[in-house]
Specification:
This protein is α+β, with helices and mostly antiparallel strands and 657 residues long. It contains 16 helices and 32 strands. Strands 17, 18, 19, 21 and 22 form a 5-stranded antiparallel β-sheet that branches. Strands 25-24-23-27-26 form a 5-stranded antiparallel β-sheet, covered by helices on one side. The longest helix is centred in the middle third of the chain and has 21 residues.
Length: 657
C-alpha cells in the first residue's frame, strides 16, 4: 500500500492501537548456504477508549439496548500499518487484526502481531513506523542499524558476503585512506553520502571501480554523517553501508567549523551544518569592550535548534549587540559558534546598556543593568558604570528613549544608549585635548605642505542601488569588513535615521562633500539595478524599474556623481566595483570606466590598493587584508547563488587515479 500517514482522529469507541514496537534480525534461507537478511517486526496491541453511555436514557429507550449490546459483543477489528524505510528502499504493508469481544477491555493489552518479514540490506540503517488506519494516536517509530557481513556470525550462509568488497580506513597526517581489498577482476560500486537524520540522504559522489583501490580524502572532508556504501556490480546486489566517522573528534570539529548562522529576515534565521547534530541556541549581549558575550537567560531560555531549517527569534527589534550562540546539547561549557547577525545591517557594536526587566508574582517590576560582572540592580550604590548612571537610565526608560528588544510574560529587554552621558562627563577633558591637538596641528601645517600631510585613516563612502535584501546584506558585509581596516566607512545602511530626517539628496551631498574634502574616496558598487539607473540618466536605456525603498540614496547620488565624470574629475576621487557572478565588468557604462573598476572578491587586492591611496594609513600586507575581506564576503555571496552540493574534489580525483 501507499505510505499515507493521515491525521489523528477521535476514537468512536474502543479501538485497537499499537503500544510497543520491536524489530528482530532473522535469516530467510532457501538452502543452508543461500540465505537473505530479514527484519521481523513485532507490534504489541492494546484497547484504547470505551463505549459511551447514552446521555438521555429515556429518549434512547429500550430500542437502543439491543444495538448497543450487539456492538459490545462484536469482535474488535483494526487495520495496522507497518512502514519500513531504508536507503533507496520504502515499503508499507496493511495488516487486518481481529480481537474477540471477550478480550476487549479498555486500557488492557490484547496481544501482539508479528510480520515476517522485511528484506533489508547488510549494514543499512532502517526506520520502522507503526500506526492504525484511521490513526487514533501518535505513531510508534523505531530506528535500527543492521550489521554488515563483518558483524554477522552466519556470514558463511549469505553468498553475497563471499564476494563483498572489504573496506579499511587508515589515516596518514592530513590524509585519510579508504583501502578497498578486493580481487583485481572484481567490479563493484562505491558511494559516499551524507546520512542526515533530518531530511533525505545526500549523495556526495558515486563511482564504479575495478580491483583493489586506495581512495584518499582530506581530513577536512570528514564529518560524522559521512558514510560509505559498497556493493558488487551484479543483479540485485547486497549493499554494505558503514559510517566510520560517527565518533571521530576531527570529524566533529570539521562540522562546527563549517557551521554558519544565516539571518534570513529581521526575525528569522537558519543554522546551516553538513550534519544534523543536536545543538542548542540562545541569544547573548556583546559589549564593544571585548568582554565575553553574556547569555540572556533568564529571561530567554536556550532552545533546541533544527539544523538547516528556518527558525524565529523571540525579539521585537534587532540590535547590533545581539548575538547568537550555538552549543552542543548538554555541553554548555564551550561555545561552538557565535554570530552577531545584525551587525552587517545595523552597523558596528554600540555602547548601549541592556536593561533586564522582570515581573514579580504580584506584578512587581524590577530592573537591572547587564554588565560583565553580572546584572546590577537599579538604582544601586555599586561602583559600576551602570550604577553611576542608574537614575539617568531610569529616566530615559520612562521617557521612551530606550529601544524595546523583547517583551514577554516574564519581563522585557531594553537597550539604552549611554554615549551622551559619557561625552558629557568627559566634555572638559575632550575640549582641552582638542584645543591642544588644534595647536599642534596648526604648528604642523605651518611646517608641511597641505598635500603632504601626515598619513591618517581615509574616509570611504559606499553608494549602491538597493536591488533586493540579499544585495543589501552583501553590501553590509563589505562595509563591515572594510571598517575593520584603516578606513572610516559611511553607508546609508548605518544612517537610516539621518537619511529619513534629511532626505536622500541632502544626506548624500553632505557625505560626498565631507569625504572628498578629507581626500577620501567614493565607492560606486554596480549592480543590475545601478546600471539600469545610470543608463536612464545617460538616456541610453529604458526607464529603470522603481523598486527602491525610501532610503535608497543611489538614485539621488547620480545628480552629484555624473558631473564629476562628465567633466573629467573622477580620477583619484572615485573607485568602481561589482561582485563576481552578479555583474560583469563590461556591463558597466563606459563613462564610469574613467575610474578604477574591480570585480570582487577576485580583484580584492587591487581594490584595496585603490582605497588605500598614496597618503593614507597602510592596511598592512595587502594579501592578508584581501583574505580577511574575502572571508567576510564569500559566505554572503554564496547564499545569493545557492550552489548545489559539492562534487568530487581534486584531492579525491588524485586518489582515484
Amino acid at each position: 500500500m501507499l505510505c499515507l500517514l493521515g491525521s489523528i482522529e477521535a476514537a468512536p469507541g474502543p479501538v485497537l492501537v499499537p503500544t510497543h514496537l520491536q524489530a528482530e534480525l532473522v535469516l530467510r534461507c532457501h538452502q543452508e548456504t543461500s540465505c537473505d537478511l530479514c527484519v521481523r517486526v513485532t507490534v504489541q496491541l492494546a484497547v484504547h477508549g470505551h463505549w459511551e453511555e447514552p446521555e438521555d436514557e429515556e429518549k434512547s429507550g429500550e430500542a437502543a439496548e439491543p444495538e448497543l449490546k450487539e456492538l459490545r459483543n462484536a469482535s474488535l477489528q483494526a487495520q495496522v500499518v507497518l512502514s519500513f524505510q531504508a536507503y533507496s528502499t520504502a515499503r508499507c504493508v496493511l495488516l487486518e487484526v481481529q480481537v474477540p469481544a471477550a478480550r476487549v477491555q479498555s486500557g488492557q493489552a490484547v496481544g501482539s502481531l508479528v510480520f515476517d518479514c522485511f528484506e533489508a540490506a547488510l549494514g543499512a540503517e532502517v526506520r520502522i513506523w507503526s500506526y492504525t488506519q484511521p490513526r487514533y494516536q501518535k505513531e510508534l517509530n523505531l530506528m535500527q542499524q543492521l550489521p554488515d557481513c563483518r558483524g554477522l556470525e552466519v556470514r558463511d550462509s549469505i553468498q553475497s558476503c563471499w564476494v563483498l568488497p572489504w573496506l579499511n580506513v587508515s589515516t596518514d597526517g592530513d590524509s585519510v585512506h579508504l583501502v578497498l581489498n578486493v580481487s583485481e577482476e572484481q567490479h563493484f560500486g562505491l558511494l559516499l553520502y551524507w546520512n542526515q537524520v533530518q531530511g533525505s540522504l545526500k549523495p556526495w559522489w558515486h563511482r564504479n571501480l575495478t580491483g583493489p583501490q586506495t581512495i584518499t580524502l582530506n581530513q577536512t572532508d570528514l564529518v560524522p554523517c559521512l558514510c560509505i556504501q559498497m556493493w558488487p556490480l551484479e543483479p540485485d546486489p547486497v549493499r554494505t553501508s558503514i559510517c566510520p566517522f560517527k565518533e571521530d573528534p576531527q570529524a566533529h570539529r570539521n562540522v562546527w567549523r563549517a557551521a554558519r548562522v544565516q539571518l534570513l529576515s529581521t526575525k528569522s534565521w537558519r543554522l546551516d551544518m553538513p550534519c544534523s547534530l543536536p545543538a542548542e541556541v540562545m541569544l547573548c549581549w556583546q559589549s564593544p569592550g571585548g568582554d565575553p558575550c553574556q547569555p540572556l537567560m533568564p529571561p530567554l531560555s536556550p532552545e533546541n535548534v533544527t539544523v538547516n531549517k528556518a527558525s524565529e527569534f523571540p525579539v521585537v527589534e534587532g540590535h547590533p549587540n545581539l548575538c547568537v550562540q550555538v552549543r552542543k546539547v548538554r555541553s554548555w561549557e564551550k561555545v561552538q559558534l557565535q554570530e552577531c547577525l545584525w551587525s552587517d545591517s545595523l552597523g558596528p557594536l554600540k555602547d548601549d546598556v541592556l536593561l533586564v526587566e522582570t515581573q514579580g508574582s504580584q506584578h512587581n517590576r524590577s530592573l537591572c543593568a547587564l554588565e560583565p560582572t553580572g546584572c546590577t540592580p537599579l538604582p544601586s550604590r555599586a561602583t559600576t558604570r551602570a550604577a553611576h548612571l542608574g537614575e539617568q537610565l531610569l529616566e530615559d526608560l520612562q521617557s521612551g528613549q530606550c529601544l524595546k528588544l523583547w517583551n514577554g510574560d516574564l519581563g522585557a529587554l531594553w537597550a539604552c544608549p549611554v554615549d551622551k552621558y559619557v561625552h558629557r562627563r568627559w566634555a572638559l577633558v575632550w575640549l582641552a585635548c582638542l584645543l591642544l591637538a588644534a595647536v599642534l596641528l596648526f604648528l604642523l601645517l605651518l611646517r608641511k605642505d597641505r598635500g603632504k600631510a601626515a598619513a591618517g585613516v581615509r574616509a570611504a563612502l559606499l553608494l549602491y542601488s538597493a536591488d533586493n535584501t540579499a544585495f543589501e546584506s552583501l553590501v553590509g558585509s563589505l562595509a563591515t569588513a572594510l571598517s575593520r581596516l584603516p578606513l572610516r566607512v559611511a553607508v546609508d545602511l548605518w544612517s537610516r535615521r539621518e537619511l529619513s530626517a534629511q532626505g536622500p539628496l541632502a544626506w548624500l551631498h553632505a557625505q560626498r562633500r565631507q569625504t572628498l574634502q578629507e581626500r577620501g574616496v567614493v565607492v560606486l558598487l554596480f549592480s543590475p539595478g545601478a546600471v539600469a539607473l545610470c543608463r536612464e540618466w545617460l538616456q541610453d536605456g529604458p526607464p529603470a524599474p522603481r523598486a527602491h525603498g525610501p532610503h535608497d540614496a543611489f538614485a539621488a547620488s547620480l545628480s552629484c556623481v555624473l558631473p564629476d565624470f562628465l567633466q573629467g574629475r573622477a580620477s583619484g576621487r572615485y573607485v568602481g566595483a561589482c561582485f563576481d557572478g552578479l555583474l560583469a565588468l563590461d556591463a558597466v557604462p563606459s563613462l564610469f570606466r574613467a575610474a578604477p573598476l574591480f570585480s570582487l572578491p577576485s580583484q580584492l587586492r587591487g581594490f584595496l590598493s585603490a582605497l588605500q591611496g598614496p597618503c593614507a594609513a597602510r592596511f598592512g600586507r595587502l594579501e592578508d587584508s584581501a583574505e580577511q575581506v574575502a572571508r567576510a564576503l564569500q559566505p554572503v555571496l554564496d547564499s545569493c547563488f545557492r550552489p548545489p552540493p559539492r562534487g568530487l574534489g581534486p584531492e579525491l580525483e588524485a586518489g582515484l587515479e
